[in-house]
Design a protein that fits this description.
The protein has 513 residues and is of the alpha+beta class. It is built from 15 helices and 21 strands. Helix 1 (16-27) runs parallel beside helix 7 and helix 4 (86-104) packs across helix 15 (492-509).
Amino acid sequence: MAWDEECDVVVIGSGGGALVGALAAAKAGLKVILVEATDRFGGTTAYSGGGMWLPCNAALRRAGDDDTMEDAREYYRAVVGDRTPRAVQDAFLDNGAAMLDFLESDPHLEFAVYPWPDYYGKAPKARAGGRHIMPLNLTPEEIGALRDQLRPTLPVERLGEPLPEELVGGQALIGRLLLALKAQAGADLRLSTPFRDYVAEDGAVTGVVVGKDGAERRIRARKGVLAAAGGFERNGEMRARFGVPGELSGCVGAPGNMGRPIEAGIAIGADVDLMGEAWWSPGILHPDGTATFSLGLTGGIFVDANGERFANESAAYDRLGRDIIAAEAEGRLKRPFWMVYDDSTGGEPPVIFPTVPVGKAEDYVAAGYRKRGATLAELASEIGVPADRLEATVARYNGFCDAGRDEDFDRGGEPYDRFFMGEGGGSPLVPIRRGPFHAQAFSISDLGTKGGLKTDAKARVLRADGSVIPGLYAAGNTMAAVSGQTYPGGGNPIGSCAVFSWIAARDMAGTGA
């Protein structure tokens, strides 16, 4: 085999997990080449809050957390069930704290608790304060010129807003990991270097083919290849082939997430799972036709084509997204669907975090995504639902608000439902009484697909017969999600990606268990 260059480890992708894997391999003394398809590092992590769900870690302990691994495991099992192998679930749960210890051993990386309720508040051993941590903020002075290579936030990228004065959340996580990697002599990070294919010899992956400056290069990976390049949410053909609900216009994944490492894995015999799944959310529709991940709904109700509620509007976003998909599958809901609310917010939809800021009201009206009626009957006519049903739905809902209990969907019945309602967690049962009445169009959005290459507990990619493909590892959304068809808590995607990338690097270095 003719190689253009050699290293110990090739890492595909540059989100939070990929950078953790590269850092772990480099600190173990291995020569690492990381290839990123786009011209910016960070992947979808760079858009995110940067949180990680990692039970019983040092940052939680410093804040007085009294959780136990037994409780965390009981909660995780109750939520995820047997949809994914228990050995893989245990690998995630049992290695999170140690992975964070590794990160915090670097002077550039430090984390703190950001209380965020577990997403299944009634499951056994759920915690109202969550198991969630975030990186400390980072100043532009600290990151320096590396910020020019960091994928910006969605408001900056899509709306041209100015860069924030301070790097927070996912920006801080990627920035800190880039600083840590910059200090590693064995780490070579390359932008605009798209992955093309794996090189397989005698059933083992020995390297990769990448594109660079219009040519292809073969890179040998003596210890292995870690595919942590996100999912395939930006690939319309793959979405259609595997039956992923929603459209590209509702995706907020990074532009390089085309799924090539997954397709190339399938081509050499890798097994896949969860290919119709994603990390879901309701998405507010913007005038350009995009729908963006939205959370923090502090009022209003969602109605289907019959003018009736179909879900707990304050539920954790992935659970709510799945309710939307189910209602559509039943024929009750057509997209766009509508959030109905009154004038107590001045006509603006009661959504705290629409990911991309809501712009001028007249633009939404012109696009047909914002409607208004002096009465509920008038509003019903505007959004195409039966007036009598909408009036009855709102009257029933207002009765629940007065009684303080939602008998249909238990809105407000879990800590997450109340999380965005101000200090003390007030009730999200906000009545709809003050005219004129408004409706905002929504669709389904996703943070990325979660179907991918099946792995074992060491992040090694498996064939359909359960055998390992030597030399190939996967993590993050390139890997079939350890959480299966659920989203146990905020920070689960990044946390699991970081853990399995760390496990993979340790296995390649020969330092893993």
